[in-house]
Design brief:
There is one protein chain. This protein is α/β, with parallel strands linked by helices. It folds into 2 domains: 137 residues, 3-Layer(aba) Sandwich (Rossmann fold), CATH 3.40.50.720; 210 residues, Dihydrodipicolinate Reductase, domain 2, CATH 3.30.360.10. Helices cover 35% and strands 27% of the residues. Strands 7, 8, 9, 10, 11, 12, 15, 16 and 18 form a 9-stranded mixed sheet that branches. Strand 10 and strand 11 form a beta hairpin. Helix 13 crosses helix 14. The protein starts with a strand and ends in a 12-residue tail after the last strand. The structure holds NADP nicotinamide-adenine-dinucleotide phosphate.
Length: 406
C-alpha cells in the first residue's frame, strides 16, 4: 500500500487517476496535481461518482523544482507518475532526487525551443538515481511503453534472435471534429512534422516528413494508410536489442488530417519560434494548441478502435519466424469505463501498471530504465487484467519487405 503523486490533469492524467483509484490496495492514497487545479477537481469528482473513491488535488507548476519539492515533502508519496508534458521531465526527476521518491513517465524529455526528443538527457540521470537507491522508469505509456514490453516478451518467449521490428499504430476512430489531436496538440504536431527516421544496418536513415507511406492491414479494422515516423522507443529498443537489423515505426493518418496539417504548416501555424504579435511574443504552435479541442474533451462521441502492435521477424531454432502482437482498444468502451477516449486510455493504463510493478517489487531496482529492460511477464498479465488485452500470432505473413527477400 503506497501513496502516489500523479502530476498532470489532461487526457492521460484523467485515466491514470481513475485506474489507480480503482486499486486502493496498491495505491492507498492519491494526490493529483497540475497547473490548473479545477481540472484536478473535475477528475476527482468523476472518480467519486464512478468509483466512490476520494483523491486529493493540488496546484503545482511543474517547471519549478522548489514548488515540486515542497508538494512532495508535504504529501510524502512513494513515487511520482509524471503525465504532464515532456518539457517537465527533468524538473520532476530533479525534485524526485531531492526528496527521495521514485519516478515514472510516458514521454521522453524534449527542450521547448527545439523539436527534438531523445533519451540522452534522462539517461544522464543513471548514476544519480542508482546512488540514491531510486528507480526512474521511462516511457511507460503505450508507444513508448507497451510496444517495448511486447518486444521484450517476443525476445523472451518467441525468438532466439530478432532481426526486423515494425511498430504499427492505427487510430481508426472518428471523433467528429474537422481537426483535433488525440494527445497534447503541441507535442503531437512537433512529433509528426519532424523528419522521419528509422534504424537500418547499424545506423539511422532519414526521410522527408511523412514521405514514406503504405497501406497496412490492421485486425478488425482493415487496411489503413500508414506513415513512417521517428518515434522515441526506437532509440532505446535498438540499443537494448542489438540483433535488430532494422526498426521502424508506422502511424496511420486520415487524408483529412494530412490536408489540415499541410495547410497549418504552409501558413506557419506549426512554427515553434516566437513571433511578435501586438507587442507580445507568441509561439504559433502554442497559440494553435489554445484554439484546438483538448484531447480530454474528445471522448464523448468518439467511435471506432485503435490497434497498436509489434510486427517482428527473426529466427528460432535456426528457422525463420514471424510474430505479430497487438492490442485493439475501442473509444466508446473506454469512454463508458472512465470517461476518456482510447488514446488517453492506452497511455494511462500502462502508466498505472508500470507504477504497480514498481510498488509491488516486481520491477523495483535503483537506476534509470526503459520498460523493455524489465521482465515483461507480470506487466503482460496486468494488461489483460486491467483493460488492454493483447493478442498474438506466430508465423503469419507480415506486410513488410525484408533484406534477405530482395
Ligand atoms: N507513451 C504514450 O503512448 C503517450 C501517448 C499519448 C501521450 N503521451 C504523453 O502523455 C503526456 C500527457 O498527454 P495528454 O494528452 O494528457 O496532454 P494534455 O491533455 O495536454 O495534458 C497535459 C496536462 O499537463 C498540465 N501541464 C502542462 N504544463 C504544466 C506545468 N508546467 N505544470 C503543471 N502542469 C502542467 C496541463 O495543464 P493545463 O490543463 O493547465 O494546460 C494538462 O493538465 C504528454 O507528455 C504526452 O506526450 C504519451
Amino acid at each position: 500500500m503506497s501513496k502516489i503523486l500523479i502530476i498532470g490533469a489532461g487526457g492521460v492524467g484523467h485515466v491514470v487517476a481513475h485506474k489507480c483509484a480503482a486499486l486502493p490496495d496498491v495505491f492507498s492514497e492519491i494526490l493529483l496535481a497540475s497547473r490548473t487545479k479545477s481540472k484536478c477537481d473535475a477528475i476527482a469528482s468523476s472518480i467519486k461518482t464512478r468509483l466512490d473513491e476520494t483523491i486529493a488535488t493540488a496546484q503545482v507548476d511543474a517547471d519549478k523544482v522548489p514548488e515540486l519539492v515542497s508538494l512532495i515533502r508535504d504529501f510524502q508519496p512513494a513515487m511520482v507518475i509524471n503525465v504532464v508534458l515532456p518539457y517537465q521531465d527533468l524538473t520532476i526527476m530533479d525534485a524526485c532526487l531531492e526528496t527521495g521518491v521514485h519516478y515514472l513517465d510516458t514521454a521522453n524529455y524534449e527542450p521547448r525551443d527545439v523539436a527534438k526528443f531523445e533519451y540522452r538527457w534522462q539517461w544522464a540521470y543513471q548514476d544519480r538515481f542508482t546512488q540514491a537507491g531510486l528507480m526512474a522508469l521511462l516511457g511507460c505509456g503505450f508507444d513508448p511503453g507497451v510496444t517495448g514490453v511486447f518486444t521484450a516478451y517476443a525476445q523472451k518467449h518467441i525468438f532466439d534472435e530478432m532481426h526486423y521490428l515494425d511498430i504499427v499504430d492505427c487510430n481508426a476512430g472518428d471523433h467528429g471534429q474537422a481537426f483535433a489531436t488525440n494527445f497534447n496538440p503541441e507535442i503531437n504536431i512537433r512529433e509528426i512534422t519532424q523528419r522521419g527516421r528509422y534504424w537500418e544496418d547499424g545506423e539511422w536513415q532519414e526521410t522527408e516528413p511523412l514521405s514514406v507511406h503504405k497501406p497496412i492491414e490492421y485486425p478488425d479494422i482493415g487496411a489503413r494508410e500508414s506513415y513512417l515516423l521517428y518515434h522515441e522507443e526506437l532509440e532505446s529498443l535498438v540499443k537494448n536489442f542489438p540483433s535488430l537489423k532494422r526498426a521502424r515505426f508506422w502511424m496511420t493518418f486520415g487524408e483529412n488530417y494530412i490536408k489540415h496539417l499541410e495547410v497549418l504548416q504552409n501558413v506557419g501555424m506549426t512554427r515553434i519560434d516566437p513571433v511578435r504579435y501586438q507587442g507580445v511574443d507568441i509561439v504559433p504552435l502554442q497559440f494553435l494548441k489554445a484554439v484546438l479541442p483538448e484531447p480530454a474533451s474528445l471522448g464523448e462521441n468518439y467511435e471506432g478502435q485503435t490497434s497498436i502492435g509489434c510486427q517482428i521477424k527473426g529466427v528460432k531454432d535456426g528457422r525463420d519466424r514471424t510474430f505479430y502482437i497487438y492490442n485493439n482498444c475501442d473509444h466508446a468502451e473506454t469512454y463508458r469505463e472512465v470517461g476518456a477516449q482510447a488514446v488517453s486510455y492506452t497511455t494511462g493504463v500502462p502508466a498505472m501498471i508500470g507504477a504497480k510493478q514498481m510498488l509491488s517489487g516486481n520491477w523495483m531496482r535503483p537506476g534509470v530504465f526503459n520498460v523493455e529492460e524489465l521482465d515483461p511477464d507480470p506487466f503482460m498479465a496486468d494488461l489483460n487484467a486491467y483493460g488492454l488485452p493483447w493478442k498474438a500470432q506466430v508465423d503469419v505473413p507480415l506486410p513488410h519487405e525484408y533484406a534477405e527477400e530482395k
